[in-house]
Write a structure and sequence with these properties.
The complex is a heterodimer of chains A (138) and B (145). Chain A is of the alpha/beta class. Chain A is built from 4 helices and 6 strands. In chain A, strands 4-3-2-5-6 form a 5-stranded mixed beta sheet. The radius of gyration of chain A is 25 Å and the shape is elongated. Chain A starts with a helix and ends in a 9-residue tail after the last strand. By secondary structure, chain B is of the alpha/beta class. In chain B, a hairpin with a 2-residue loop joins strand 3 and strand 4. Chain B contains 5 helices and 6 strands. In chain B, helix 4 runs parallel beside helix 5. Chain B is elongated. The chains are: A alpha/beta (138), B alpha/beta (145). At the A-B interface, helix 2, strand 1, strand 5, helix 4 and strand 6 of A face helix 3, strand 1, helix 4 and helix 5 of B.
């Protein structure tokens, strides 16, 4: 009697691991999302439509070009092309493919200027984003 | 309720039965999990785009580049697209695909889009779309003032 009681007392308290694992998974998912979650640009960009398209991973740092020529990298507004170049030089190690989301009414000359700056920052792989909607034209 | 007599109790037996205690916690867990799942699914959806590879650094080659040259003028007046000229012929977005398809394969290696600065981005993308679908391998941009 006595023996069995003392034996039971020395048993380690059972620590339930399941809630801990649940929490860890949830945190993992949370940080995964928060890292890649769409960061809204400071202005609306209407992408052109195209049937010929490749697919790219959603990553941070895409360049948004407004129809009026404003630029922004994610939600960071860029005052001019030189500021953008400096930003790209800082972040170029993290950028594999630079996605350019240019408004369909943006000036082509300006888009090419942005591409030139990307090249100066030694980012050679670019992508011109097109609309995610199904192609309606010819 | 406790004041009911036996008879009354028998009559109201149905309503007396305790409502089953629905445990909401697993449902809420499931709902949150679904929300997270759909948030993830939308952010992981691939982004459509047209691949652009910039030429290696260095001065542009002196050789006259081979391939098709498509010239696009700046849009004038109220027009939203510029006039496109390929091989001294005016082409439109509607027939560009056919024109690209009919060019011999060796010429389709490269297309140079020579355009004014004010040409809108959409027109360029539409031209690239037609050219890519017609099998043009490389597309280059050139600016004219």
């Amino acid at each position: 009697m006595k023996l069995s009681k003392s034996k039971k007392d020395t048993n380690l308290p059972q620590v339930p691991m399941e809630p801990l694992v649940d929490c860890v998974f949830l945190l993992l998912i949370f940080f995964m999302i928060s890292n890649i979650l769409k960061i809204p640009p400071p202005f609306r960009v209407e992408l052109p439509e195209s049937k010929a398209r490749s697919e790219f991973e959603r990553k941070r740092y895409s360049v948004y070009i407004h129809a009026t020529g404003q630029i922004s990298i994610d939600d960071q507004r860029m005052e001019n092309l030189d500021q953008m170049l400096n930003y790209l030089l800082l972040k170029k190690k993290e950028i594999e493919v630079l996605i350019i989301r240019a408004d369909k009414d943006a000036e082509h000359g300006f888009v090419v200027d942005v591409m030139e700056k990307a090249k100066q920052a030694e980012i050679d792989n670019l992508a011109l984003a097109v609309s995610e909607d199904d192609y309606k034209g010819m | 309720m406790h004041a009911h007599t036996q008879e009354e109790q028998r009559v109201t037996e149905r309503s007396d039965r305790r409502a089953p205690n629905v445990d909401m916690t697993p449902m809420i867990d499931c709902v949150f999990l679904l929300i997270i799942f759909f948030m993830l699914a939308t952010t992981f959806a691939p982004l459509p785009g047209i691949r652009v590879k910039l030429p290696p650094p260095g001065a542009p080659s002196k050789e006259k580049p081979k391939g098709l040259i498509l010239r696009i003028s700046n849009p004038v007046g109220g027009d939203d697209s510029g006039v496109m000229i390929l091989n001294n012929e005016i082409v439109s977005l509607d027939n560009a695909f056919g024109v690209f398809m009919n060019t011999p394969a060796e010429e389709k290696e490269m297309l140079i889009i020579q355009s004014g600065r004010q040409v809108i981005h959409d027109q360029i993308i539409q031209v690239m779309d037609r050219a890519k679908r017609a099998g043009v391998l490389k597309i280059g941009f050139a600016m004219v003032q």
